[in-house]
Design brief:
about 425 residues; globular; four-stranded mixed beta sheet; about 20% strand; alpha/beta; ten-stranded mixed beta sheet; Adenylosuccinate Synthetase, Chain A, domain 3; binds inosinic acid
């Protein structure tokens, strides 16, 4: 049974949630290994969620939309165990809220979740610190406190999920980190109001119902591998937002590439048999940072409207641009992709021609490799190949051969340029709007 990784191959929002949901129909485990509530994984299902995967004979009903921020998108399948790995930073208030909402949507069925001992807690002071430090506005982050939470982890003053199992030592640990920040901002009332004992009591009460689900998930996953269970690893954010390999400093604070599975779930990437990169048929980015193929005219607005390119987590309008094969080739190398899933091909219908970047021009020379250095990338001009467009809507296409000729050629062009098979093409948000190849 394979272990499959589903990883963002651009700057996030590629539609990973839907792919993970589809793959988890047959999976035993779905594992998140990075990020926190900055992620927003959207799944539109046309089935009765309480029955999805349990009987396999569920009757289609009207569509229903789910937005996952912390809980892995495999959670709609009753037989799929969801794991929140040690590489995550978890806001316990948001987790309780998301779990309760999901339980209601699943008609009372408790989502099957386990949380790693080692996952860090993102606590109410983290978003405050992010705002005070100004990184929220300088980088245009999601304002969830992600950077400060990961920094506490690296500075070894962070609190972890396992600390909730040791109430006696919890106030002491909270006191250490609170004293640190309260001494930096003595005048900020919002920060001064936190008291370690009161916060401990609030956290213990809040997490009462899921504390027994905080376990050694490394062992759980290795047992699963031993028993040849099928595992889907769900990446959050994407390679170009990776802390090390993305467009630093306009990145998130976690490892969104394949290595995150090792450091954020305790499973060596060598155990992963299929690595699926997910890319849109065009490109989007939220937040600041260089974006060579960004469109600065009406066509950008058109893609934004047609593709509903507004953030799932923050509602921010996404910047829109053409597909960038220079970036995709870089990501393919970083992640060792075995295949690509191309999403939102339907959004491109109606364009006379579709530009695709195959190289960059930088200071008079042609670059075929992606320079993940902002100073260079912001000076790169894309060199476009212009491919013919098509007018027909794609929503009714069920097989690759149903696609208009120009759409088939668009897909084949990408495959040839990045030297990867496109195993899945998505032509709409619904779980049945896919062409598997
Ligand atoms: P942070 O992760 O909130 O610190 O934000 C850092 C950068 O990553 C900002 O530009 C965000 O817009 C971006 N970002 C973080 N999470 C996501 C995501 O799930 N999708 C798209 N962009 C994201």
């Amino acid at each position: 049974m394979p272990a499959i990784a589903v990883l963002g191959a651009q700057w996030g929002d590629e539609g990973k949630g839907k792919i993970v949901h589809l793959l988890c129909r047959d999976a035993d485990f779905c594992v998140r290994f990075n990020g926190g509530t900055n992620a927003g994984h959207r799944v539109v299902t046309s089935r009765i969620p309480a029955l999805v995967g349990a009987n396999g004979d569920d009757e289609p009903t009207e569509t229903q939309e789910f937005k996952f921020h912390l809980i892995p998108a495999g959670a709609l399948h009753e037989n799929c165990i969801c794991v929140l790995g040690n590489g995550m930073v978890i806001d316990p208030y948001a987790l309780v809220q998301e779990r309760n909402a999901l339980r209601d949507a699943l008609r009372g069925r408790e989502p099957n979740i386990y949380i790693s001992y080692g996952a860090h807690l993102l606590l109410p002071y983290h978003p405050i610190i992010e705002r005070l430090e100004g990184s929220q506005s300088a980088l245009d982050t999601t304002a969830k406190g992600i950077g400060p939470a990961y920094r506490d982890k690296a500075a070894r003053i962070g609190l972890r999920m396992v600390d909730l199992l040791f109430p006696k030592t919890l106030p002491e640990k909270l006191q250490r980190v609170l004293a640190h920040y309260q001494s930096i901002w003595p005048e900020v009332k919002e920060l001064q109001q936190f008291q370690s004992e009161a916060l401990r009591d609030e956290l213990l009460k809040l997490t009462e119902t899921f504390r027994q689900r905080i376990i050694d998930t490394v062992q759980l996953l290795h047992d699963a591998l031993e028993q040849e269970k099928q595992i889907v690893f769900e990446g959050a954010q994407a390679a170009l937002l990776d802390l090390d390999f993305g467009t630093y400093p306009y990145v998130t604070s976690s490892t969104a590439t394949i290595g995150g599975i090792g450091s954020g779930a305790g499973v060596p990437p060598s155990r992963v048999n299929r690595v699926i990169g997910v890319a849109k048929a065009y490109t989007t980015r939220v937040g600041h940072g260089p974006f060579p193929t960004e469109i600065h005219n009406d066509l950008g607005d058109r893609l934004r409207q047609q593709g509903h390119e507004f953030g799932t987590t923050t509602g921010r309008p996404r910047r829109c641009g053409w597909l960038d094969l220079v970036a995709l080739r870089y990501v393919s190398k970083l992640d060792g992709l075995s295949e690509l899933a191309l999403t939102k091909l339907d959004v491109l219908a109606g364009l006379a021609e579709i530009p695709v970047a195959t190289a960059y021009r930088y200071q008079g020379s042609t670059l075929h490799e992606f320079p993940a250095v902002c100073e260079m990338l912001s000076e790169c001009e894309p060199i476009y190949e212009k491919l013919p467009g098509w007018d027909e809507p794609l929503g009714e296409c069920h097989h690759f051969s149903d696609l208009p000729r120009a759409a088939q050629d668009y897909v084949r062009f990408i495959e040839d340029e990045i030297n990867l098979p496109l195993s899945l093409i998505s032509v709409g948000p619904g779980e049945d709007e896919n062409l598997w190849r």
